[in-house]
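**User:**
Everyone, produce one record:

**Assistant:**
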Amino acid sequence: MAQSALFTPSSIVSSPVQPLRPFQRLPARQRAARGYSRGRLAIRMARTESVESTLGTTAPDFTLPEPLTKQQVSLSDVAACNGGKALLVVFICNHCPFVVAIIEALEKVAKDYESKGLAAVAISSNSVQTHPQDGPEQMAHFAVEYGLTFPYLYDESQEVARSYGAVCTPDIYLYDSDRRLQYHGQFDSSRPGNDKPVTGEDLRKAIDLVLQGEKVTEQKPSIGCSIKWHP
């Protein structure tokens, strides 16, 4: 697959995508804090912490569909982009307030480090049986709404989430150039409603260290909504 097919916005939108429903847009952080997700009132969910992973383990392989482009995207496709110096894999979903609160800042992190060698991918593994708002059509809308420049893939079987040990959204995994896990932790200390700025400070520090070939010693667990497993 050509690199531009993954990361050039103009190449991934073949036809205009219309909003699911009109609404007055608030900044993502305000929407998350008020319990809104994509213009709808979201159910407030219990917080789930990411599960500790063994550093140095190899990123599990995958090939998943990207709803926006209707293409199949593999781990190797992503890792080969932008020089392959670091690889960011983030499990997210459309409706989670914890994701909505950071998604714009996450996109900015990906863009800021793109020229430095970071490749990024997001994956949604939520069950559409229980949460149809997280389905592939809605994922395509989400990617356009937030201007995502990295692939947003659909893990329908949930096998990829299980292979990574992901349990929450967001669940963040950062790998080095050899695809060895170096960081599995929080984006930053902000949470919906806690009034802390959304900066991506923790992830940015981790990326800097990985790009310098250094170890990431401080790793605080990510916190978010639980991944919604199939019944």
